[in-house]
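### Sample
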Amino acid sequence: MNFATRCVPPPVAGLPPINGTTTAEISVDRTAPKVGDTVTVTYRVTKPAASNPVDIALPADIMTPSGKVVLGGAQTGQIAVKGPKKNPPVPGKGAFPGFSMTGTFKVTAAGSITLSPGDYTIHTSYIMELDTPCAVSRPPAPVSLTITASGGPVANQRAVTLGAASGKPGERVTVTGTKFAPLTAVTVAGRAGAAQTADRMTLTTDSGGGFTARLKVNDTATTGIVAYEGASWTGAKGAGPAPYTVKDDSPLPKNTQKIHALVANGTLSMSQAGDTVQLSKVDFGTGGGADGALRTVTVKDFRGGPAGWSLTGRVSDFAGPGGSTIGADRFHWAPACTTAPGSPSTCAAGSEGPVGSSGATLASAPDGALTGGEFTVDAGLSLKVPAFTPPGAYAGVLTLTLT
């Protein structure tokens, strides 16, 4: 692709700016990354707009290019790129040869991300240190490449509430849903313990992902009401059960008594054994892993419904003295999860590896006919400290989210 460029020769050359055309292309090492992935970008200039501004021939390997790649679409910003100090000999007043520059960026948003060539500078180190900056004449330059990023872990925020907590057989209850997918079919149904009843209806959410339904409940065994997108219940696209009791007031035979009992739904909750972790020290010049252990997290799932759960974490960069930082992507964990005896669900530990600012799964339990239980979650922690990190205390914040 070509784009108009304005290059300014070094003042020592005594030459006016050069209005020319740059031919370039951009490539990446992955065109379908996930949020949190690091993408390597190559900005390859096959024909620079600038040339050697002096009559003196330039020897090989004295040119160092640097520049920017411009992001647009779902993620905006600029990527700093730089090339090696490498070039063939350039005759006096001869055209500069092509060159390649590379850099990286972390994907922070899902969707289509565009990459366009930005300004670049050609630095020469021969007799004098000289810069020839070249700017895009009419920014932004045309899009050279589009990549599509998929999302990372997203919390299920769907919820249902009921207009009444009980009713007689055949009565309708108002069911209100929020934060479902907009303009999407949703099934609202009764639930009898671990099973779904025949009391159900299907409707379409509004443009905000909400709905109001009037569900007729006939089954006297109903203990709750759920709502979900798709053909069947999943924890990722469902909500509930919201507790509901059917009051059967039908006459009893003579000399009999009807006895009621209620097992109430509880909540999904977590607690942790402390809020501070001190990692082991590392030495300047050596670096390595600053190791420690996560404060134990206890998850209690007492909802008694079909939904599983997911415990995720994300970490900030580690701030140190004088503005020094250690990147969040250098914080790793090795999760472990134990299920208490008698729990209907079995938890699974997340994968060992980096946590980063976009997050990773610490532990989870799957959907099922009847889920629940108590779980203990631990993890070995390690901050991979570069060898010549400035000495001092560094601190980051690990945020855990249970959904």
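The two ends are 46 Å apart (CA to CA). This sample (Beta-xylosidase) is used throughout the tutorial notebook.
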